[in-house]
Amino acid sequence: MSGYQHAPLTKLLTFATGSTTLLSSIYGVKGLELPSLAALADGHIWKIFTHQWAFSSPGEAVIGLMLLHNFRIFERQMGTRKYSVFVLWAYGLAALTHLACLVLAPSWRPPQGPYALIFASLIPYVVNIPSAYRFRLCGVPFSDKLFVYLLSAQLAFQNFPHAFVGIIGGLVAGLSYHSTTFPIRKWLIPLSLSRLGTKWFLPWLDPTPKQNTAPFGGAGVRIGAPMPRNAAGMHPFGGAAGGFPAGGQQQQPYIPQVAAQADPEAVNRLVEMGFNPIDAETALRQTGNDFASACELLLRSM
Questions:
Q1: Strand (E) positions, 52-190?
Q2: Confidence (pTM)
Q3: Which terminus of the chain has a smaller tally of CB atoms within 10 A, N or C?
Q4: Which residues of 241-257 are buried (b: 16+ CB within 10 A; e: fewer)?
């Protein structure tokens, strides 16, 4: 999973959710769903949390895991210590929302799976992530973010109306986390837990860590730092300079082409997307005026 560089927690959540859903589907495990309120009071209170670990069907899992993979950018932006707080906040509010649902409507069953985390991530995705390009469909303007919105809608309607409770819990978690009223955005998991994750989980998540791989809890890519490469020394973004094999020919190592001057038109496009002009110019020069690579570098450094 090289696409999870600088996002070890997202990688762990994706793998755990996918494998748990697959195993429960194959072996017909039925103990992960949220039981009745009486069963919770009878000693199964732990299921208020574990029912968020797996989707109820493989179809939901495919869509949900695609969205979790796409939202790995937030862990790169925040750093794993802050993103861990965001994940715990989403799971915790979802548990309270589902418990309230069981009290108020005992016959209602909240959705199974990390719905809250996915829809909580939609809030910063809408507000903070700029669109890379725009297009028109039947005269109606859209952006490249439409794909994520369609997947989210598909996931919501896949388990409707039961998904409504998870969606509400997730949106409340996302809005409250990014609100200036609450100090949650300043919270970090303790450094001791971060070091524990680095020692025990990071080697398992990435058995061959690269030199530029950030530690569990570290920051993402920094503008002005050397462009990251994969184990073969290839440019991770592909493009005209390489990074992906073409026509079965042997792949050549990528040599960064640093431009002496940034393309003014590309700088203006990045500024219109919401990036700082100085950062945009630096990223373009560092990537040889490759707009897609510069945009990816800027997003990963936020």
A1: 134-137, 140-143
A2: 0.68
A3: N
A4: bbbeeeeeeeeeebeee
